[in-house]
Write a structure and sequence with these properties.
Layout (H helix, E strand, L loop, with lengths): L8 E8 L12 E8 L1 H6 L1 E3 L1 E3 L14 E3 L3 E6 L6 E12 L5 E10 L20 H6 E12 L3 E4 L2 E3 L13 E8 L4 E2 L1
Parallel strand pairs: 9-12, 11-12
Antiparallel strand pairs: 1-2, 3-7, 4-5, 6-7, 6-10, 7-8, 8-9, 12-13
């Protein structure tokens, strides 16, 4: 097993929830996630933070960084045939021991990865954006994955901008304002 391969998988399903919808033409659907193998995942201890020093001997080390819940990271995605870096937000940290730590994440995407956002008026409300601001914009999704801690490359600065409350794009780092539901193909 390579340093970035992970023994866990996450299956995502849509479950019909008719009582949550006001529109009978489009019933609401809830996302359901199943972690496999579940019994092994549940048997591991949970942690609020993970210190990089435990796996500094691996490549991609960036010193004594500490990773905690809700941090945004860049990590190698083990679920692709060719390893690629992806941006993710930490939801949970679990470990057997310091050499076998795993992180449950929601992946974030480049705005260009979700063409449906363009049809929602994305372009029209960002006419004043500089090229650099557009390049730094990412989209939060509910695409869940589990990665080995050794797959983490580094922390990433990413700020949520709430435009309904007059939020401003930060001068540096990535930023996001959209949440994309990959099952329902809806933005919020």
């Amino acid at each position: 097993m390579s340093p970035t391969e992970c023994l866990f998988t996450v299956d995502q399903f849509q479950q019909l929830n008719p009582s949550a919808s006001n529109d009978s033409r489009k019933p609401a659907r809830n996302n359901v996630y199943v972690i496999r193998p579940y019994s092994i995942w549940e048997s591991m201890a949970r942690f609020a933070k993970l210190e990089r020093q435990h796996w500094q001997r691996l490549e991609n080390s960036h010193g004594d960084e500490v990773y905690k819940l809700q941090d945004t990271i860049i990590a190698y995605d083990p679920n692709h045939s060719t390893p690629r870096k992806r941006i993710a937000r930490i939801l949970e940290i679990r470990a057997f021991d310091e050499n076998n730590a795993f992180i449950r994440v929601f992946y974030m995407h480049s705005i260009a990865d979700i063409p449906q956002l363009m049809s929602l008026g994305y372009e029209s409300d960002r006419e004043d954006a500089s090229e650099e601001e557009v390049r730094r914009e990412i989209v939060a999704t509910n695409e869940m994955g589990i990665i080995k801690a050794s797959a983490v490359n580094r922390k990433l600065e990413a700020t949520y901008v709430d435009w309904t409350k007059g939020g401003q794009v930060p001068p540096k780092g990535y930023w996001w304002r959209w949440k994309w539901d990959i099952g329902n193909l809806e933005a919020s």
